[in-house]
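To illustrate the input format used throughout this study, we show a single complete record. The first block contains the structure-token representation of the backbone; no residue identities are included at this stage. The design step must infer an amino acid for every position from geometry alone.
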């Protein structure tokens, strides 16, 4: 490789301009600069400490790389498209600054194990940021639940009113989903936590490298055990995409409920002015754009997972240039996931629950039908018989256009002689507090669940 402005990648010499432009990745992989420089600094220090290159050269390399990093962060670094990628841009800039010493940096290293290291560091960092974002969203859910601790709402199956529940109990279902998501990102981080440097192009390197010292400096807990696998593995990126896709699916489900509940048809929620938009022609509109965009962008994250899986599925060992295509989907998933977690955590505390309307929906209709069946079971009626009797009772009430609360005892007794005066005492609160089992919607259980959720968040901090 020639020094100076005319320097080119060894792989780029003689390439047609169109081929060079087609294969260049510096337009997007420059985003890895901090990880690339950190890896190079650790590698140079190790080379010097092992006597593989002169210690003075190692010192010059480290200082030069730190200067380049500062220039990039200050926006003063000149990125060159003709140098293909982030690695060559930094390496050529280093040689221009310190001369021949810079040419020693690539000793005992290939771009194959170099880029694998960069991507692993990026994924580890992104996993940490995702977990932080999830914890923020969980705190927002707990806060909204506590602010509406006694509020009632109808629980749904098939989007049909099913049984009354506490609003806080419903929100805590999402807390549990996000807790599993955090665990998935922790697993993905653990899979990424393995140093590839020292694997070379695919077979290892013929130098007395100290891989463990490089791993320690970069924050890896272990070194890779097979050089071929190390340079070709992107399973850890698949894990990150899969965790992101599941998280976005959960956020999309929450978004869907915010969208539905804030509609006039439901009217359970009111959106804050600074998280809703109006219509260009309809002045009355309050559109749930943030929730809709989160729901819509979920598809992008799914697509990125499929793009990576499809790219990997036919690759022979070891490195293939196809692997360059892992970065744009990865960056895009990060750029969807992290802001979505942040904006949802900011919006949730600003939602206003119409507790009266939600409670009215929970009390109306036939949501207590299961409780009526359970009442008969308490009187000794087998459950299947009780179920049949209450089904007929509900059909009768619907034909009479009466909710259960308006039926008389005589009307109840048409369907079972076991009905007594106390059946008229069944109400929404009694229904909710009857579910006094671990994980149930009874007020005491939900209060305990909120306390436990806060403790779990404190423990995760």
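Output of the design step:
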């Amino acid at each position: 490789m020639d020094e100076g402005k005319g320097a080119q990648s060894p792989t780029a010499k003689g390439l047609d301009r169109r081929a060079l432009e087609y294969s260049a990745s510096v337009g997007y992989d420059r985003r890895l600069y901090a990880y690339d420089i950190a890896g190079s600094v650790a590698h140079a220090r190790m080379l010097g400490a092992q006597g593989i290159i002169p210690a003075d050269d190692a010192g010059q390399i480290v200082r030069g790389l730190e200067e380049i990093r500062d220039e990039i962060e200050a926006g003063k670094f000149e990125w060159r498209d003709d140098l293909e990628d982030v690695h060559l841009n930094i390496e050529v800039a280093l040689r221009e600054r310190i001369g021949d010493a810079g040419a020693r940096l690539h000793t005992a290293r290939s771009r194959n194990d170099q880029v694998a290291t960069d991507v692993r560091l990026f994924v580890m960092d992104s996993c940490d940021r995702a977990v932080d974002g999830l914890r923020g969203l969980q705190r927002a859910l707990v806060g909204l639940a506590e602010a509406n601790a006694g509020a009632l709402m109808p629980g749904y199956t098939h989007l049909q009113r099913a049984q009354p529940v506490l609003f806080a109990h419903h929100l805590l279902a999402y807390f549990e989903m996000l807790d599993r998501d955090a665990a998935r990102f922790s697993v993905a981080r653990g899979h990424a936590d393995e140093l590839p440097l020292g694997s070379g192009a695919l077979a290892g390197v013929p130098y007395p490298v100290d891989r463990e010292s490089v791993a320690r400096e970069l924050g890896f807990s272990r070194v890779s055990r097979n050089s071929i696998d190390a340079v070709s593995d992107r399973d850890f990126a698949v894990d990150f995409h899969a965790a992101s896709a599941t998280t976005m699916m959960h956020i999309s489900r929450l978004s869907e409920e915010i969208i539905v509940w804030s509609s006039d048809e439901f009217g359970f929620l009111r959106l804050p002015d600074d998280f809703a938009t109006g219509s260009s022609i309809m002045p009355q509109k309050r559109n749930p754009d943030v929730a809709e965009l989160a729901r819509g962008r979920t598809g992008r994250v799914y697509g990125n997972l499929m793009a990576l899986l499809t790219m990997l599925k036919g690759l022979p060992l070891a490195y293939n240039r196809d692997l360059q295509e892992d970065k744009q989907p990865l960056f895009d998933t990060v750029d969807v996931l992290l802001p979505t977690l942040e904006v949802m955590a900011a919006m949730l505390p600003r939602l206003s629950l119409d507790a009266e309307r939600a409670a009215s929906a929970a009390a109306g209709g036939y949501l207590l039908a299961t409780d009526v069946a359970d009442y008969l079971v308490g009187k000794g009626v087998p459950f299947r018989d009780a179920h049949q009797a209450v089904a007929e009772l509900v059909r009768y009430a619907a034909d009479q256009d009466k909710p259960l609360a308006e039926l008389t005892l005589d009307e109840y007794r048409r369907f079972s002689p076991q009905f007594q005066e106390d059946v008229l005492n069944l109400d929404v609160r009694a229904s909710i507090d009857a579910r006094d089992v671990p994980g149930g919607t009874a007020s005491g259980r939900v209060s305990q669940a909120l306390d436990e959720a806060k403790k779990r968040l404190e423990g995760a901090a």
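Structural context for interpreting the output: Residues 60 and 98 are 7 Å apart (CA to CA). Residues 1-8 have pLDDT under 50 and may be disordered.
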